[in-house]
Amino acid sequence: PTLKVKDLLLTYNVYKPIAVVPTGINLEKYSSGKYSTSEVLKIRKGLGISDQDKVLLYIGRLSEEKNIDELLYGMKSYLKDKEDVKFLLIGDGPGREQIQNCAKELGIWNKTIFAGEKPWDEIGKYYQLGDIFINASQSETQGLTYIEALASGLPVVAKADRCLEGVVEDGSNGYMYHSLEELYNFLDNILYENEHMKKLKNAAVESVEKYSAMGFAINIEAEYKKILNKKRRYSRAS
């Protein structure tokens, strides 16, 4: 699905031709127009999020390899003087208890919301709760949640990783950070600059058109056609 995986296969001495074709998703499922404002506000209220609160959103598995601890340590400093910002985590996993304990030890429990796992067929609705999608994982092969977030109209701020090349475009639909200082700057630039946030949100939706399910089908078909054409040429030659 990405050049990152292709390079990994090469280290395993896989020398057959390798095509990079990103997995596609049903973009309609994540469209903000699919869900009413009242529906989203009702969920926010149920989670203790006010209409004025800004939400940093993480959706995914709660486990060690997702590097959520780094986000929590970052939030300790960032949320210190931010009365209007909440960190919302949606998902479950073997690391949930440890991650919750970490939030308590860091003193950010009152600004960190663990919403638990949600039904997959409703997950598009929960992306609408956020203002920015944040992630620090370095273990992704493609990172479909980033694409889902962008399709939902959320700017993405993520720790730099090769699987995000061509997905997160700095200054266009989000940012990739290399240090916590960069993370803080990017978050502030989006949360407190309304015009910039609006620009990023619009670009986020436009940027993922290439990751549609139909686009994936067309690209895969093209790869199969290449293989069939090579086979036909080989057959004629022999």
Largest β sheet strand count, sense and barrel closure:
6 strands, parallel
Pattern of helices and strands: HHEHEHEHEHEEHHH
Low-confidence stretches: none
Distance between the termini: 34 Å
Please tally the helical runs, counting DSSP H or I stretches of 4 or more residues.
9
> What portion of residues belong to β-strands?
5-15%
Say how many strands there are: 6
Bin the helical content.
40-55%
Average pLDDT across residues?
A: 94
Care to describe what's here?
The chain has 238 residues and is of the alpha/beta class. The protein has helices spanning 3-11, 37-46, 68-78, 96-105, 123-127, 144-151, 180-191, 194-207, 213-237, and strands at 54-59, 85-90, 112-116, 132-135, 156-159, 174-177. It has a 6-stranded parallel beta sheet with strand order 3-2-1-4-5-6, sandwiched between helices. It starts with a helix and ends with a helix. The model has no long low-confidence stretch (mean pLDDT 94).
